[in-house]
Write a structure and sequence with these properties.
By secondary structure, this protein is α/β, with parallel strands linked by helices. The protein has 17 helices and ten strands. The chain starts with 10 loop residues before the first helix and ends in an 8-residue tail after the last helix.
Length: about 375
């Protein structure tokens, strides 16, 4: 039986392409952001006008196509949360295989904020000098996982030894770093070069499959397969994901605008946590209505899975999008294993999200 994975086949190709942020792109980014700085305001006033005139349009770069991964943003838009925060509207800019890297769009000033990943942003900073920082994270755990069938389970990292694991070429770097982090000899596992359709897993040609927890497992469930998964994040590869990236100059000069954006998103994602189907329907019927293959049923499954990455004991205590100092350090160490060497101060600035919750503690409460 063939399995068609509609929304994720090219995603990791795109993400790895995004990690190849070049010095040339950085040069353009510096030029664009300097022009914006010349005409930007300092956001020193208090309060947000009801007509959204304080900040104008919010240009917001997404990391992928308009599927349910951005449920909180759709809800915030539909329910007027961006407008209430001071924006006249939000311009959600889709990513995808043919799109420019999201960090490039933020650094150049095409977008005020972007959704990215620590390895992509870290690489942009290290190799290209991108003037960017991560100011929060939607996912407390990255969605990379090993997928297997229930009748031949691979339930944890050590269980991969002696097994045949399908790994895509674009995931080689993450795979190698994951094995290194777990002190697993690569020769102890039979790595099978594969594409993204997990058909070989269902026909017995592989025992495990490198995938996204929100994607291929649900595609197989929709086909009637019982599956087993484990997250790389639970086995010594603890990267956050779906991180908020902004320019350094925005942190210095537009802190209130960043807080306004985060406030709207927090409200939207709290609604998504309360009702996983809400964002799924918005993805299928409104924002991603032109994307072939999206269904409310599958997108709701994905929404429920991603909520598990968003809602953790730490975010229940500290608020959505926060990252604990311990998790920051774990991310820096993990990036080092992957060959991306930088300090926490070079990659993260969590002062804004922390200030936001200090000023508005009621935002911490989750449904």
């Amino acid at each position: 039986m063939g399995v068609r994975v509609t929304t994720g086949l090219d995603r990791r190709t795109f993400l790895r392409r995004g990690a190849g942020y070049t010095a040339g792109a950085t040069a353009l980014a510096f030029g664009g952001s300097s022009l914006l700085a010349a005409c930007g305001d300092d956001d020193s006033d208090d309060g947000a006008p009801a007509d959204g005139s304080r900040y104008g349009v919010l240009d917001y770069r997404l990391s992928w196509i308009k599927n349910v991964e951005f449920a909180g943003q759709y809800i915030a838009d539909q329910r007027g949360y961006y407008r209430e925060a001071g924006f006249s509207s939000v311009n959600l800019i889709a990513g995808g295989p043919s799109a420019t890297p999201q960090d490039t769009d933020v650094a150049s000033g095409k977008a005020f904020v972007g959704i990215s990943a620590p390895d992509i942003t870290g690489n942009a900073i290290v190799t290209g000098g991108a003037p960017l920082k991560i100011v929060g994270a939607q996912y407390q755990k990255n969605p990379f996982c090993i997928l297997s069938l229930a009748d031949n389970p691979v339930p944890d990292a050590q269980s991969m030894i002696g097994k045949r694991i399908g790994v895509q070429a674009t995931n080689e770097a993450v795979w190698a770093a994951f094995l290194k982090a777990n002190n697993i000899d690569p020769d102890s596992i039979e790595k099978i070069p594969v594409e993204f359709d997990p058909l070989p897993l269902t026909t017995g040609q592989a025992d495990g499959w490198f995938s996204f927890i929100t994607n291929e497992p649900n595609a197989l469930r929709m086909q009637g397969f019982e599956v087993v998964t484990f997250l790389l994040a639970d086995y010594n590869y603890p990267l956050v994901s779906q991180v908020y990236v902004v320019r350094d100059e925005s942190i210095a000069n537009e802190r209130d605008k960043i807080k306004a954006m985060l406030t709207a998103d927090i409200r939207g994602w709290k609604d998504s946590l309360a009702d996983p189907e809400l964002g799924a329907r918005l993805a299928v019927e409104t924002y991603g209505k032109d994307i072939p293959g999206l269904t409310v049923e599958e997108q709701t499954l994905e929404s429920k899975d991603q909520n598990e990455l968003i809602r953790t004991p730490d975010t229940e205590k500290n608020g959505l999008f926060t990252i604990t100092p311990e998790l920051v350090e774990e991310n820096i160490q993990t990036l080092g294993i992957a060959g991306i060497d930088l300090t926490a101060e070079q990659l993260f600035d969590l002062s804004i999200i922390n200030e936001l919750y200090e000023e508005n503690p009621e935002l911490k409460t989750l449904p």
